[in-house]
Amino acid sequence: MYEHDHHSDDNRSGPALRNALLLTLSFAAVEFVVGWWGGSLALMADAGHMLTDSTALGLAALAAWYAQRPADAQHSWGHGRGEIIAAIVNGMAMLILIGVIVSNAIERFSNPVEIRGAAVLLVAVIGLIVNLLVLRVLHGGQDNINVKGAMLHVLGDLLGSIAAITSGLVIVLSGWTPIDPILSLVICTLILFAAVSLLKTGFGVVMEGVPAGIELEEVRKAMQQIDGVVGIHDLHIWQISSARTALSAHVVIHDLNAWPGILERLNAMLLQDFQIDHPTLQAEPDGESGCRHAGSDDPQCVG
Question: How many angstroms separate the Cα of 109 from the Cα of each of 41, 105, 163?
């Protein structure tokens, strides 16, 4: 008999994610301190961007850790929603950070301050090297969705480092300090995209929306193509956490005696084609309409 596989390879990605988190978070602190000392808003903005990436790495590492924790009497689905709460809190914090940086950038256009361009340039170059090293660490980890998502954040941070390097170079070569608040606004845009992405993902999970990359009707059609399946209704798909996807549905079949084999084929297809690892399926005999249980907008019950 087919059983749901609740194990994940996320735990094998944990060391790579933790090492990347340590590197990114440590250098974010260095960037912020040097940016504050050197008067560079762009460098402090890049430190904020690296903090965003650190949180993304932390959430991915947390997901890997949570994947190893079993459900208990109080949390029958496990503890995966903790990372979603953290994502929402982090997204809100990043919006506040953006507001502070933008306000200071506007102020600096009218009241420029002295900037230690050489120090900014040196730290920004080191930051670029750190980001490249983080990418290498992540590339050496297991190939899974958490690592891929984290790598996208770090790739975005490379652009922030390049912006900070540009600011330092312009100041060292020409002394034109307005480049610093200009590029800090560019980095704020990168932070905004990361924050909005985190919030969108977090609220999507909380609202139990269909996960990104999955089309409800595509899943329905794929299920109906399994031999022995007559129809599908009451189909729902949602995320338990960033690493786990659940599905529930009523499956109309001709012969209830054939259900064990149909169930095994459905579960295998859902896992292989859509990465849905927790399907809950209920069989119904053909002719006994289950549409009385379904919503009026269920396509299987309309008409």
Answer: 12, 7, 18
